[in-house]
Amino acid sequence: xxxxxxxxxxxxxxxxxxxxxxxxxxxxxxxxxxxxxxxxxxxxxxxxxxxxxxxxxxxxxxxxxxxxxxxxxxxxxxxxxxxxxxxxxxxxxxxxxxxxxxxxxxxxxxxxxxxxxxxxxxxxxxxxxxxxxxxxxxxxxxxxxxxxxxxxxxxxxxxxxxxxxxxxxxxxxxxxxxxxxxxxxxxxxxxxxxxxxxxxxxxxxxxxxxxxxxxxxxxxxxxxxxxxxxxxxxxxxxxxxxxxxxxxxxxxxxxxxxxxxxxxxxxxxxxxxxxxxxxxxxxxxxxxxxxxxxxxxxxxxxxxxxxxxxxxxxxxxxxxxxxxxxxxxxxxxxxxxxxxxxxxxxxxxxxxxxxxxxxxxxxxxxxxxxxxxxxxxxxxxxxxxxxxxxxxxxxxxxxxxxxxxxxxxxxxxxxxxxxx
Length: 420
What we know:
By secondary structure, the chain is an alpha+beta fold.
């Protein structure tokens, strides 16, 4: 498995998971320029989900004046709009044409210089394709656009509402936020036991990720919070051949407190070293150090969909306030299943690591590099990420039949689901 980390890829990965490098002009470039929006009282659009990430339809105006409808990833942790390379050229952005599009009834214009050309690649594969295939996603709707409004994310209704700041009257528990005035990225102060950590709010990430160093600090105080080593289920959200997931640490936090709001049994992945431990010791946690640049304060990670999808979440960026109305109870078993960290190569899924607990592998008979062909007879080739996650889920003790291929030879393993 390749482990090359060229600078454009690191920046591209940071752009999508979920905070971008500082600006499209370079790692040390200026923050995103502001966008303009037409004055419309309120608009509400439908959300569809791809790889358990929220997607909405945007209508772009092409150079020929025709409409171009695309699915865009609602990424509350990204500071700039990202377009697929094809769409970027088709819309004339590279020639200096400002980007014009509609979301629902609202028209928005973004300066061409503030638009990112392509999401980056891993092993020659476009990251939009890597994260969302077979669904076609061609854009990121970022915080720098959302911050112009008060927004409501309603997972139960599968809607995103945009309204003028100060016009919404949400019900629920208010939680103060800090908002970067340029990027729009919002953070909350999260209390975990004796430790307070600033975290980005991002429903666009399927699971909560934290700095590995932050999790190491938590585990020194509370070793009982440890669940396993190696990302599994939705915490394996990138499925990229990186130490971030392969060498990550899973924890279950008994309570996370945001002001007056208490979140019970929160699962999180403390990411592993991206450049192996020696490299990270020399240059720091590269992914996170790039990732946090557009945030209003240095951050320790993000709160993802495993938390935010339980709430109707209202964010008034101008007022610096989020309001949380619970729609469903917390699921403390959201990762229970087969303990495998997966990597996606083209249409195939391969095992990057067998998760372990206290040094003991949680699946016997499987090795890194094995191709996972099917689970209980359900073929995985070409399937979306959420299909693979769901196939491996199960109540503790449930046996799953894994069809694998090793060095071209088929093999079959029965693996028990475990609790995470």
